[in-house]
Amino acid sequence: MLGKTALLLYKLTTGCCPEFLMKNTVHARSQDSSAGRFILTLISNSGDLRAAGPVTALVLLLLCLCTFSQGVSAADEPRFFTALPAACTVQLTGFTRARATMELVSEHSGKVTEVNFDVGDTIPANSVFVRTDPTFLELDLKRNLASQARAMSEIDYFDREAARYRTLVQRQTAAVSALDKLEQELTRSRHTLHELEVEEAVLREKLARTAVPAPSGWRVIRRFIEPGEWISAGQTAAVLGDFRKLLIPYALSPDEYHSLMELDPSIVLTLPDQGDRQIKARIFRVSPAFDPVTRKINVELAVSEGMPVMRGGFRCRLTISLPDRSGAVLAPKTALEQRYEDFWLVRKSGRKVRVLILGDGPDQETVRITSPDIRPGEKFYLHPPR
Fold first, then answer.
1. pLDDT tens digits for range 251-292
2. Domain range spanning residue 194?
């Protein structure tokens, strides 16, 4: 048809009979109505066109070629579609939990005098969670200080006596053995004082540890004691958790793990219980161990923002796309032709191929299909001919 159009324009520029123009224009109008109307306009002004010369005719020829080529491609392209390889979508569910948990443990026995926080409270900076009665430790410290005073008095006495006996021994008016005995007592008193000083440091440290501190920013998960109760050394007073960052554990197969690594750090999680709200996550840590029972890799994702409340128990859905090993392809629903319980696709050659529907595609307009006679890249009718 393009050849006839070019010939028609040539005749317009060189001069021809109107019968020739009308005969060839009918064919153009039957192929493309807009192009036909355009050429009819040229016919009506053929005298002016011949006067304009071959340059103007060449420009018009190019315009016609573009018009016809666009019309042909636009009419042909939507008739067929290309089968694309399908991806298998896997959805995994995990629940949020604290980044870390810890137990607060009392280091010595005693009566609980105060508990400053309850379940759900956030610990502020420089806070004491629980405090025990320090009465007996304070009494032990007083006794220690009294013993130190006695030891220092003995040291002072034996030091003066030893100095006096050294003078007497030099004058040979006292026995050397008496001087040795005094110096030995002086040394023993100094050692006793040093032991008492160490004991004082221990008692003061125990007094400081009657107050059990808690890390700031953490929240109370469980509390096991009340004021007035007796707590033993090593007993757990409370369990705290760091909810400033949430972790979601997943157990992934090797294929799922590799696909997840390709998504990091642009991983998106969906909260089904919060109106399918989407939040960003990243890989926090990956266990190097391999579970021989489940044959899975343990991966933890971290979420630090976007949550309605930073707490545990939120259901998070992770969607991973994996290559479909069955060889399935994607096809529009409009391309399927149903005959009884079977579905068919029609090739460009007109040959029909029976297919099996595996499920919906990534959108509402496509489905996943499989057939031993279909490979990705092949073309089929978008709307099967009737």
1. 999 889 999 998 887 899 999 999 899 999 999 999 998 888
2. 134-209
Structure pTM?
0.62
Q: Does any domain span residue 128?
A: no
Contact 283, 306 (CB under 8 A): no
**Count of domains observed in the chain:** 4
> Is 101 exposed, middle or buried (CB count within 10 Å of its CB: 0-12, 13-18, 19+)?
middle
**Same domain membership, residue 349 and residue 288:** no
- Domain assignment present for residue 343? The answer is yes
What is the token pair recorded at 48?
């002016």
CB 108 within 8 A of CB 130: no
Record the tokens describing residue 44, joined without a space. Answer: 């009506």
Q: Are 129 and 123 in contact (CB under 8 A)?
A: yes
Token pair for residue 129? Answer: 């969670």
Same structural domain, 200 and 154:
yes
Domain end residue (candidates: 57, 77, 97): 77
Residue listed under structure tokens 């990705």: 376
Q: What is the rounded CA–CA span in Å between residue 130 and residue 106?
A: 9
Residue showing tokens 């007796």: 230
